[in-house]
User: Fold this.
Amino acid sequence: MAGKKQFPNGTWQYIFKRSGVLEKPIYMTFETEEEGDEYARKMDVLLDRGIVPTEHKRENRILTIAALVSDYERNANPSPKDVSALNVVVKTKGATALLSITAEWVDGWIEEMKRVDKIAPATIRARVGALARCTDWGMRKRYLVMLDHPMRSLPDGYAQYSQADVAAAGIKRVDVERDRRLEHGEYEKIIAVIDSGVLARKQRPLMIEYPKAYRLLFVLAVESCMRLREMYTLTLDQIDLPKRTVFLEKTKNGDKRQVPLTTVSSAALREYLVDRELPDGIPKDMLLPWWDGVAKSLPVVSDYLSKRFKDIFEQAGAVDLRFHDLRHEAVSRLFERTTLSELQIMKISGHKSHRMVMRYANLRGSDLAAALW
Assistant:
């Protein structure tokens, strides 16, 4: 147990000693005995287990969130989703010392994301969850010790906007689950815009580079349920046209996946491969002409293609259509046009939960009505 004594000014000094664990005694001062006893109780538990909290180690090269995230991404192989979230966290909070990650700091960070940044609850959960997993790993590596993990004790609704948050932000952000589907004739209009190779502009038209690649990407999205990144990172050895399959080595969920191809998508692939074009700097085994194979450029390519397709959709008159909506369209088509079971569709789409795949299964009322008596 820690020894303690009170100074004449009313503060309390605590002394921690552990043979074989601490190189020398640790002296700490607290304003009140209650505060000191609480810290000492937790400190004694850690020291009894042979764990020295980060702030009491003589040397520690991992001192900030940025340093921890860098080591985590280099050695722990986090999911692409977590990497993306952590990159944003580093930009805004990277200089924060690990010793500063307390319940008060976490609450303040969440409040800032709502009241200043005005971020949607889902994005808040993604960033907090990613940093929580990163700090979990950091504790296993003994880069830091949190007596109480402040990101693991948050209430269920922590990311939702309270009345005080709404008053401070001037807005109430809520999660919006998109259910946009391709309307009648939009598929053909989008193909026509891509095939034209030109996007109208106020001053001068913008030429679409590699329209055949855009066409293939669009068709694959509607026909295969693959995500944007899963498609533009495809290499030729992942495609087996005789068996009509695409093998995904690493997906958003971190799992391998075999994607069957429809006759439409396999025909589009065969046609594209006849005169596939790749610019300089793109590896020769890539299917499509945008990614250079460098991990750091993945967000750049995703952003570029998403914006370019937004332009294409707008010119085709597909109001408020986004590229990720095509995945929703593809999954819904599997429910509408096949007799595949929910489990089989989840195998194709890569969804892990029943709730997620059912969110995508937005069957049109007219199609359901046609099946009734």
Notes: The first strand starts at residue 3 and ends at 6. The CA atoms of residues 132 and 248 lie 28 Å apart.
